[in-house]
Amino acid sequence: MAGKLSKWTLFLANTLIPVAVLLFCSGYFPYKPILPGAARQPEFEKAPAVFDKAILMVVDALRSLIRNGAAIPFTAHASSPTVTMPRVKAITTGSVPSFSDVVLNIAESESMSTLVHQDTIITQLKSGLSGKLLMYGDDTWLNLFPGTFDRYDGTSSFFVSDFTEVDNNVTRHISPELARDDWSVMVLHYLGLDHIGHKAGPKSSHMIPKQKEMDGIVEEIYNAMLSETHLESTLLILCGDHGMNEAGNHGGSSAGETSPALAFISPKLKIHSENSQLATLDSPMETEDEFQYYRTVEQSDITPTLAGLLGVPIPLNNLGVFIPEFLGLWEKESDRMSIILENVAQTLNVVKMAFPRFLSDPERSIARCNQDIDSTFDKLECDWLAASLSITNGLDNEASHAAFQKAQYRFLHEAQSVMSGAASSYKLSMLYSGSFIAALACIMSAIVAYRTLPRSQTSVSSTLFLLTTATLHGAMMFASSFVEEEQQFWYWIATSWVVYIHLRSARGCKVSAMSLKRTIYTIFFATIGRIVRRWNQTGQKFAGEPDIVHFLASSQPRLLWVFILLTYMANCRGLIRSTPFGNKLSLSNALWTVLSVVVSTAALVFKLSFTAADAPEILDPFMLKATEPEFRTTLVIQARLAFLGIAMIVAIFVFFNVKSRGSHDVRRKCLLHEALTLFLITQSRATNIPLFLLFRAQAWILELVDMNSIETTINLTLMQHVAFFAFGGSNALSSVDLSTAYNGISDYNVLVVGLLTFISNWAGPIWWIRDDESNGSAIIQHLVGSAIRNGGLHHAQNSFVRVDGIFSEVLV
């Protein structure tokens, strides 16, 4: 009865964990209130439009591509999350997107991600200009603005295997559209650069040709502006929605990810640039580590700037600031004032909506402005009062105009800073409920663990180690720097664990050949752990620093492939030794050996071909020659053949498992583990494949260690986390690797791609979960023995597996 109660308690605890996470997330992701409706023309006289057409050319993951003299360049700051949908929202609304948009960015759902009910620059251009709106490229725009564009051709942004066709589908529309005169706005969103980054990183051999291709397209558009009469008053805005880090990914807040290029290009700007301080700008600039090549503006500043230059109202919820470098395009001072005042009036409405008590007591606010100000809210009020005073003081000379502009921009920038950093509408009740339910699940699992697990001194010590680890890890989450560098915690804890296990095993033992052997194994395990730790540099501080992967890929690619080949050979050997046909020499075993070799070879050939297309720089000429297109089929077919072979092995496992009616056979469990290992290898980057060989060596050493169920749980948890970070993972969204998310598929499918993405990014932890369950000789046999000694084989086995799952979830 007690055993049944424990099972149901653990089942309930496991059920409560996802409920707690969902409740917490629903309260954590803030809902930002928005002003309904659409902006109208201001009551005062509006400045005339400078341009009548606009071409918005978005180059996904662009960092810096400024090569044209008739351009005003900037470095645009793209706030996190640096993924496409939130950044497109920032560009078109002028507001600050939330992290919930990251999920919508992946879902590609029209109903979930639409901006049809919000005021945007696209909406204003649609209603304010006479021509048609066109869109070619990333279909995110079509999801955000359904029914808005008159002519369009969308492409999926998530099929990252495509570098060429995805951009050709955009470029083929440019020449015909430039010859037409029936449009006012054309959006071009190129994805190839971003796809190359995801697949092979910013230093890929594909990157320079793709950048030159983008330069050629800009040149074609600019030449059309010079030659076509109907394009002479056209503005080209060249920008990146986000950048990329040194691994080619994005989503985080590193300098490379948050510093895309921004350039306003038009023949009209040449005269303006020559008559201003912009004439002194150099192009191209020297390489700069932080990518701050030109003056930094917020990406949201594009919205009011574009609205002013094209003569349409600024969207209601905009937080952007009109870029002052363009004020010189208007000759009249009154027009410049009109541009600034419209921006100020619109921003003031947003501030009053977010802070209803803003300027509720003007006299008290004025009194506070004469004192030292600590609150950002009070400073914002004082900046607004100063901006108002600059208007009432009169604008009768150049000095007063300069003071007016300075005061207005001080208020605009302060409002932008305050509103961008404001955390609005957190549902505290949901946060508290989620935390309470999570704590309840932990308590329930702890009670069951206390009743079930043995009471030996070793178990008590191990439990204290586990609780200390969980407590320290939880405390770390209150500091952002610890979150960014979490891998250091797990590396340190794992090292401490190795020392603890060695000291515990050596306690009370005399010096002997066995103790010396144990010490050698411990040193060997720690050495492998050190290699694993240095395989990939991750986190924020050390990302991009020298590591083993970069050394092997750049200096010793042949040695890298020797390690990769050894990994495949070890896996093939494991498949052969896990034959379900017994140990006797037979035709069945011979065929099994052939099948194992053929499937392993197919997987290796696919990985070679994939690397030749993805990162040819890590292959020597002989390997490249062997993978030339005339000698191989397509990558999709090769991947499917490898997956088919793995599926055959799994099918054989299932057949024998059903035939034996589910009896626990260690050999068959090892067979399933080896098949899974081959699949995980296929879903990993080539540079990370040798890690599986190192993990195999560590697992072999652990089989020789006598551990109780608590220690096995701790070991599993630690090795999962170490493996995740060793593969280059981190808590930054930018560490998500999409390079192998399309193995074996020819088009985008959110479920399949999502599953493959999960497997490729958590290959290390998945391997250790299966290894712990399948390595069974020593560990499982010990658990069975412990269960028998503690009274009840069936109950103890199930308790271990479920408690293990609970602790893993809690520590994550």
TrEMBL record:
Molecular function per GO: CP2 mannose-ethanolamine phosphotransferase activity
GO annotations of cellular component type: endoplasmic reticulum membrane
Purpose of the protein: Ethanolamine phosphate transferase involved in glycosylphosphatidylinositol-anchor biosynthesis. Transfers ethanolamine phosphate to the GPI second mannose.
TM ranges: 12-31, 430-450, 462-483, 489-506, 518-536, 548-569, 590-613, 633-658
Taxonomy of the source species: Eukaryota, Fungi, Dikarya, Ascomycota, Pezizomycotina
The name this protein goes by in its record: GPI ethanolamine phosphate transferase 2
Domain GPI ethanolamine phosphate transferase 2 C-terminal, residue spans: 423-769
Pathway this chain belongs to: Glycolipid biosynthesis; glycosylphosphatidylinositol-anchor biosynthesis
Major localisation: endoplasmic reticulum
Biological process (GO), any one: GPI anchor biosynthetic process
Membrane topology per record: Multi-pass membrane protein
Family: Belongs to the PIGG/PIGN/PIGO family. PIGG subfamily.
Keywords for this protein: Endoplasmic reticulum, Glycoprotein, GPI-anchor biosynthesis, Membrane, Transferase, Transmembrane, Transmembrane helix
Protein's cellular compartments: Endoplasmic reticulum membrane
InterPro entries cross-referenced by the UniProt entry: Alkaline_phosphatase_core_sf (IPR017850), Phosphodiest/P_Trfase (IPR002591), PIG-G_N (IPR037674), PIGG/GPI7 (IPR039527), PIGG/GPI7_C (IPR045687)
